[in-house]
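step 4 of 6: structure.
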Amino acid sequence: MSGGVVLQGLQTVLAVLAAPLLTGWTNQCRARLQGRRPPPLWQSYRVLHKLFLKETVLAKEASPLFQATPYVVFSCMVLAAGIVPMLANDLPFSPVADVIALVGIFALARVFLALAAMDVGTAFGTLGARREMLVAFLAEPALLMVFFTVSLISHSTQLPLMVHVLAHRKFAIYPSLAFAGVAFWMVSVAENARIPVDNPTTHLELTMIHEAMILEYSGRYLALIEWSVALKLFVYSALGIALFVPWGIAPVGDEAALPLALLALVAKMAVGGLVLAVLETLNAKMRLFRVPEFLGTAFLLAVLGMLIHFLLES
Amino acid sequence: MSEITGYQPVAMVWGGVLCWLALALLAIPLRAHKRWLLAGFPLAALTGLWVAAVGVAGLLLPASAQIVPVGFPGLPVHLRLDALSGFFLLLLGMGAFGVSVYARGYFQHMEIGELARLAIWYPAFLAAMTLVLLANDAYAFMVAWELMALSSYFLVTSDYRVEEIRKAGFLYLLMAHIGAVALLLCFGVLQGNGHTGDAAFTFSAMRHGVLTPTQASLAFLFALIGFGAKAGLVPLHVWLPEAHPAAPSPVSALMSGVMLKMALYGLLRVGFDLLSVRQEWWGVLVLVLGLMTALYGVIFAAVQSDIKRLLAWSSIENIGLIFTGLGLAIIFSVEGKSGLAALALTAVLYHALNHALFKSLLFVGTGSVLHASGTRLMSGLGGLMRKMPWTGWLMLLGVLAIAGLPPLNGFVSEWLLLQAFLFTPGLDLHYLNMMLPVATASVALVIALAAYVMVKFYGVVFLGQPRNPALKHAHEADIWQRMGMLWLASACVLLGLLPSAVIVLISPAVQQVAGRVLTNDGGWLVLAPMDAARASYAPLPFWLATLAVLLLVYGLVRFRYTGRVRRSAAWQCGFPAVTARMQDSAEGFGQPIQHIFSSFMQVDRQYPQPQDRTPHYASVSIDQWWHFLYLPIVAATNWLSQQTARLQHGRIQWYLTYSFITLLVLLVFVQ
Amino acid sequence: MISTGASGMISGWYLQIVNLLAALLLLISFAMLAQRRVAGLISLFAWQGAALAVSTAIVAVFTAQWHLLYSVALTLLLKVMIIPWFFYRLVRKLGMSRDVEPLLNHSLTMLTGIVLVIFAFNLALPISQMAGTVMRSTLGIAMACVLLSFLMMITRTKALPQVIGFMAMENGIFFAATSATYGMPLVVELGVALDVLVGVFVLGIFFFQIRETFESMDLRQMEKRKEH
Amino acid sequence: MLLYGLLGVPLVGALLLLVWGHRRLAAEMNVLFSFITLLFAVALAVRVMRAGPMEFDGGWFFMDAFNVFLVGLTALVGFTTALFSRPYMRIECAHGRLTMVRLRLYHASYQVFIAAMLLALTTNNMGILWVSMEGATLATVLLVSLYRTPAALEAAWKYFILCGVGIAQALFGTVLLYFAAEKVLGAGGNALLWTHLNAVKAHLEPTVLQLAFVFLLVGYGTKVGLVPLHSWLPDAHAEGPTPISAVLSGLLLNVALYAILRNKVLVDGALGTQLAGHLMMGFGLLSVVVASFLIRQQSDVKRMFAYSSIEHMGMMTFAFGMGGAVAVFAGLLHMTVHALTKSAIFFTVGHATQKAGTQLMSGIRGLMGINPGLGWGLMLGTMSILGVPPFGVFTSEFLIVTTAMHEHGWATPFLLVALGVAFAAIFGQVQAMVFAETSLPRLPHQPAMTPVFLHLVLVLVLGIAMPDWLAVWYRQAAHLLGA
């Protein structure tokens, strides 16, 4: 048990610390693919450091809610990181929240961010909040559906258990999982404000979603938000790994498997970042009103996955 | 009073009812004394607390019954307090306490005439709802039910000079009446056929009545129509978005938060208690209707620009979710999966309780906003967080709760509901197995959309900049109002943090309805229905962890980085001339929804003209049901009545002819 | 009490007179249906009353139903004298002796009348067979009179003819009472007579009121209370 | 003795008022006489309740639970209406709509009317019953035309002719009844005594009685206002003075229905079939449905409530037609509550129209502002008549509908649709009348609200706590009606 607590802490801290690395890696890959000179891998940390040290400028109208939001969002992401198995399955904290609660945590962070965006009362902030919520209400059910499909196979909504079942099942091709996987990818893209749904690198009024929400943040608040964004991407990636390629995660009580698990995680994350970069390079950002169609497709795929599970696998 | 033995809980509730009735009656002679009238509300609140306490007693103690020898000869008023009514009494009492405390502050600025009307009907309304929960025979139930409708009608129309309010009241009472007629039919079918005379109307006779499947289905359908009309089930929901905004806010709070649950209670009473056997298709029907209601409600909530209307539609949505769960419970119970039925029912009851609290909170908070700003339209609101911090923060809790976000109470019940859905595989009916994933998806969609709606609601009203210069003078709610809201908000938090305890508390009600309690595999800290390995949720540790991380991060950041904070104008990408009109309006926020779900509604848009000095865009989304269902009925009625009127054309010879022909026809008939 | 069976000889001729009078009543009813002039209508009404009175008197005398004589007296007094006289006076005073235009086509009315008579006869047949009275076969005629008067009320557009139709209907009912049961109990007869008297009195007041207000007795002015 | 008091007081009152009716205290005298009548009625009721059914005067009069309850109701509503008419008619005079001479006519006829109805209720003789029904009609014809407006005259004329013709059919029916009775009971006055008839009803000739019932039903049914014989009713209610509308709706219709029911008992006994009941159900249902659709078309408030009376009379007729203990009980209860409620409504409507100067509902607005008592009176009265609990109308409708569901399921949809339409139509109008903004000033004088609230409280008591003795009474009456 105590080992579990240590592992839990270790893994969470690792996630928090390593999250900007994944962002940096993705950016590097993308720059390479686009023929630009890549920023160093540590660029994300530098940016965070810089932001933390900077003077914070707050809008006059900003309320305490605006100031509290970065902390809330960041804590939510840390919590999420504490639930998703990355290295080991032995997570004493995980009964606190299952996948549905995980979706809830993400939603909480998002709602706070959207409210904060509306707090100052600028045109961009409200616009961003609206678009963010639009994306969310389509993405969230799709995400839930993905989880449900997986949980139908694993008979649980507890992540460690799901991972355990998925990793130790007899090897078989689950078409439902394939559908769910594609849907999950689409949802993650939307949730993490990546191309083709959103572009994290632009500040164009017509296209931006996430960036519009955090326009008014600066200094340490912005740093926290950026860090949360990185952490969110990391958690999502870990989630994808846990659900669809869970092999390698150390089972309960098997400390010896940990180094291998770490290696596997790094490898999978690297591949994941690369894939993300490739896809971002290949696709163009879509019009805002194509987004519902995009997410609708994800939703449909997830539901199809569930139906297929009933039809073929049960 | 016969048959009172000792301090039976039922007799104690009866005391609460009498208290409320006495307050109502006392208000009539005191109708000119403002101070006395206002003093009635805290007393009503205390009575509410008392009723809630007795409700808990009803949950924990065995059922108790009482016969009060008033009412119909041969059919005295039968009262009974069992766990199910105990639960709803608890709900009623908790809601009533908070709202009544609030009402003391809210009503004190009313004109005396309106205050007097409110002071008379408000306690009467509470008493009627209590009686609905206690009634143990069809007659008493109907009387209480209609008294509830009547008193709430008078509360809705307390400001009757406004034509819209009258229209809303009319529609409300009409729908209530139609619902009551359906209930009458339901009880008519249920009438215990083993008994004759007046005794056939007692619930105990109905419980033992033997019905054919057709009769039972008929009774259930009538009950569904009757209670659905009160609950606002689509397509019987049309009154709700009209009546709730029309009422004074505490009344809206009670109606939305508490009265709608009486419909749930009624359906549970009829469907699970009076009808001993259920059929699976009832569950499917309720499920489908519930989903439709939820989806319809939330979509329309998203496109409203009147805050109370928005909340009213959101109530429709929540009722939809509740009924979805109920449908699931029926399906499970028919299939003999009583454990799962218990899970679904727990979700239903939990959500009902939650909704009673957060919707009351939101409605009363809206009342404070209305009082401070004088408008319900979002286009004239904004930035109230800074003027009304108490209201703002307490409302934030309500908003987060209703949006189904952890660690508040809304999340718990929605989590339970989703868990219930996840357990559906393995039903005997295969088409259900196929259908339920889609249903699950819809529930998820509704929950996500609810968050959208609430961000819109809170963001537009409390955040941003005031859209109307007059809002500079907005004032904070007074101490009574704050206390009321505080009560409701803390209840939301507590229910969110201690779900295991709550589930234990409501388990007698679940036991009574589903025949089994929901087993919690996780102890008092962790909520783990059925099996901890399948799913668990522990809000208290969750909340503590969040808090810990938050404090840690805050501490670290503040300790490590001590950078200055400077206040300046908003950045806005450097755009200099920022005005409040540049923020998203309510219509703007609803536009994507209008766009995506355009087939659900008919949108009337008013576009600004090029020469407008203050260009304004407005869009009103009209419920399609009006066109599909209600207007054709009205037209048909009018047509029929015009045709009938042709009979009456004033010429006496014709009238004589009618008599003559009648005579001849009858003579031929008897020959 | 003379039983019909035993005194076939005596009953023979008076019964024939009664039957004749009954036929006369029916004829008068038809005549009233056809009559266009108000004055003529009033005299027909008086004649109808007279025929009623005579037939009742004959029955009273020959069957020793002496109480029927009260009824005869009342009929003579009311329906042959007072009411016609009153109506004549009204007609003169209010100047409404103009022709009565029926609402319905004349021949159609007659045809309907005949159908009604057949209908009434059929209706009365089983009942009159049960009756113990000497003039039971006239019940059908009484019923026909009632229906014909009803028809007459329907087809008239002026107030007075309508009232006369109403009174004729009362005559038919009286005739039925006599023919089926040798009249109603005396109290009832008296009561009915009182009602008729009061009714006519009320009617008189009424006519003046109508006249005052509408300046005509045409019912077509009184069709304003309607629903569309 | 009590009986003579009951019948004599209004007659004496009528004579006195005929002389005195235009003087200063005539209205008070009217109230006084009505009150004494009420006292006699109560005393009689108590006696009958204690001692059971009794005959008076060698069988000329007969009191049992059924008619004594109607006597009580009639005397009560007669008294409260007199109370209401005192200020009402005074204001009418002040407005110049009436002269003192007509007021004399009014007062005298009012007492005659009450006397006629009491006679109709107490007499044992079916012939006298007819005579007094006709008398009640005649007493009110001139009251309907009291205002001498063209509309009032037209209404009165239709009332006179249609009811006259109708009641002539009833006379014919009575003749047929006598014809049948005479064979069993022998000729003479006793053959029309209801108690005697009732004793031998099984031996009465069925063919005759069924024919008789048709005529009686059409005849008295015209007075009840059953569709399609109802055409006089809305006119007479709308154009007469409001107190008369109140007693017409509240009392006369009941008494006419009483006449039908007395006859139905005999016919049922003779026929041994449900024919009479089915006919009544048919008429009742038709009345309920047609009247409720006609309500939708109204713009005149008194007309609207007149149609509502048709609807409710139809409801009662339907209930009595169904027969059975519960339905008849409900029918009797409905009689009571409808009489009380409808007259209360007419009282408030009277004051409202007087104030607004029009009977058009579009012209009557904001009663709540003019006088809250008036507003609440009309509002609650309407709620009550529409069958909203806890008022007694709901109770009876509850029983009627639930019984109908079990006995004649096919009829329930019609009943309920009609109730729904009537609800929407009436309530939509009343709400605006009571609540909407008005430019009229407050009512200068205090309206006569005591009768209104007295009636409503009684109806409320009937709805939530019916006293046992009353229930026993109703049950006895229901038993008498063959249930």
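step 5 of 6: annotate
 - Chain C has one domain: 8-221.
 - Chain C touches chain B through 21 residues (CB under 8 Å).
step 6 of 6: archive
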